[in-house]
Amino acid sequence: xxxxxxxxxxxxxxxxxxxxxxxxxxxxxxxxxxxxxxxxxxxxxxxxxxxxxxxxxxxxxxxxxxxxxxxxxxxxxxxxxxxxxxxxxxxxxxxxxxxxxxxxxxxxxxxxxxxxxxxxxxxxxxxxxxxxxxxxxxxxxxxxxxxxxxxxxxxxxxxxxxxxxxxxxxxxxxxxxxxxxxxxxxxxxxxxxxxxxxxxxxxxxxxxxxxxxxxxxxxxxxxxxxxxxxxxxxxxxxxxxxxxxxxxxxxxxxxxxxxxxxxxxxxxxxxxxxxxxxxxxxxxxxxxxxxxxxxxxxxxxxxxxxxxxxxxxxxxxxxxxxxxxxxxxxxxxxxxxxxxxxxxxxxxxxxxxxxxxxxxxxxx
Length: 364
Fold this sequence. Notes:
By secondary structure, this protein is of the alpha+beta class. It has 2 domains: 76-237, Alpha-D-Glucose-1,6-Bisphosphate, Chain A, domain 4, CATH 3.30.530.50; 240-359, Outer membrane protein assembly factor BamC (TATA-Binding Protein, 2-Layer Sandwich). The protein has helices at 2-19, 109-123, 201-236, 258-272, 297-302, 344-349, 351-359; strands spanning 87-88, 97-101, 128-132, 137-140, 143-149, 156-171, 177-191, 194-196, 240-244, 250-254, 274-280, 285-290, 315-323, 326-335. The strands form 2 sheets. Strands 1, 2, 3, 4, 5, 6, 7 and 8 form an 8-stranded antiparallel β-sheet that branches. β7 and β8 (194-196) form a beta hairpin. α2 crosses α3 (201-236). Mean pLDDT is 85; it is low at 4-20.
């Protein structure tokens, strides 16, 4: 029993020793901090001053009021993390500031970021006040952080730290680039030594960067959520139908701009047994050879059945044409080796395979 108590005591001492380590300051020998400055060399009258090399000269024009020795904060500086789509930081900018570029054309960029800011503060249980609506300046209410010690009923509050932030938007004249800057405007700390409204510069920068990174992460989350909603909408939406092209020939009508459909067609060809032999980008024509995909033994075992388009194996032309009345609609005419468009009956027979492929549901 005594041995167990002894081991427990050693463990307690080790934990206590680890908890006393201050990760802000360097550890080691700081004798250099107490060294006296060497006196300048005095040259007696009548003697020439010896030649001095300036290779290792250190100027004295520095900040003499900064911390020295163990008081130096050795933590790595915080950085703004541009993890959201089309976000970027300015080089050599120490401010907690980030730029967002337009990603979604159907939403107002500044409103989108402002909503993400509101949602982040709401999730933190903090409200926000409008300071200057014309100049897009807002401030949060107090963030309160408590440091406690003890356990359960014996828990006590050792210190309380309160912070309040300012958020300012900056928009380019074209409206497709918006910057958000975060700054700490109020600080209050209360502990055993009393109250303090001062915060050192490095801690201030770290607090601002951390707050900004929380907002950037929220913007990224909102982007991802909106993309998921768009995928679900696209999966449930009928993007492909059977109709006619401008020459009244049977064709598929795809609810997609012609440039986007043209760029995505190689994905469709690869999945359904078509090989691109040639193309005419000006006329928006793909010349492809069709061979029905074969199903291997392992495909049958694992149930990975490849959908097959039931048409003859030969060369085809996929002719794309934009709708003059709707830029988001494109006609797709499939022309066989004899130069004849596939009939309405054939388009209907293969529609169940063609429709999901041309909707690109697995891509979006």
